[in-house]
Amino acid sequence: MTIKLIAIGKTDNKELQSLIDDYTKRLSFYIKFLAEIIPDIKNVKNLSEEQQKQKEGELILNKLNATDVLILLDENGKQFDSVNFSEYLQKHMNAGMKQLVFVIGGPYGFSEDVYKKANGKLSLSKMTFSHQMIRLFFIEQLYRGFTILKNEPYHHR
């Protein structure tokens, strides 16, 4: 199985990007992981929130394969602790799917079309974080999940 993270807009903070790269490298020892960054939409000042979500939604949907399982990182999604998240990952791996895709949307969330296509929603916290921080937190939690599944000492119970 491959896990793919799709996110809108690049990470411009070098320190954050360095940490993202570190956890991405660590994660590669457990699973094939891809991060795909969709560039920020140009001229957003001329677009309403709905138009921006629609344009971002089209770009997100164009990155998907027909067989992908799509999970949105959304503030109204299901919350897990780290152990339960590792079990969630294991269930998806056991299901024999080819690619599990997680998406971090733009500043206004997702278009209705993206919500309709989604197979689920996941929330990392009730708090709001920057899109750049969520990338780091999510990739670290993926890494933590796999160390839990392998019974490695990174996660202390």
UniProtKB/TrEMBL annotation:
What InterPro entries does the record point to? Alpha/beta_knot_MTases, RlmH-like, tRNA_m1G_MTases_N
Question: Is Cell membrane one of the keywords?
Answer: no
Keywords, sorted A to Z: Cytoplasm, Methyltransferase, rRNA processing, S-adenosyl-L-methionine, Transferase
Q: Where in the cell is it found?
A: Cytoplasm
Matches recorded under Pfam families: SPOUT_MTase
Q: Does the keyword Methyltransferase apply?
A: yes
Q: Which reaction does this chain catalyze?
A: pseudouridine(1915) in 23S rRNA + S-adenosyl-L-methionine = N(3)-methylpseudouridine(1915) in 23S rRNA + S-adenosyl-L-homocysteine + H(+)
Instruction: Supply the enzyme class, top level.
Output: transferase
Q: What is its EC number?
A: 2.1.1.177
Q: Which residues form a coiled coil?
A: none
- Domain of life of the source: Bacteria
User: Which residues are involved in binding S-adenosyl-L-methionine?
Assistant: 73, 105, 124-129
Q: Which NCBIfam families has this protein been placed in?
A: PRK00103.2-4 (NF000990)
Q: How does the annotation summarize its subunit structure?
A: Homodimer.
What family classification does the UniProt entry report for this protein?
A: Belongs to the RNA methyltransferase RlmH family.
User: What functional role does this protein have?
Assistant: Specifically methylates the pseudouridine at position 1915 (m3Psi1915) in 23S rRNA.
Q: This protein is called what? A: Ribosomal RNA large subunit methyltransferase H
Q: Tell me what organism the protein belongs to.
A: Mariniflexile jejuense
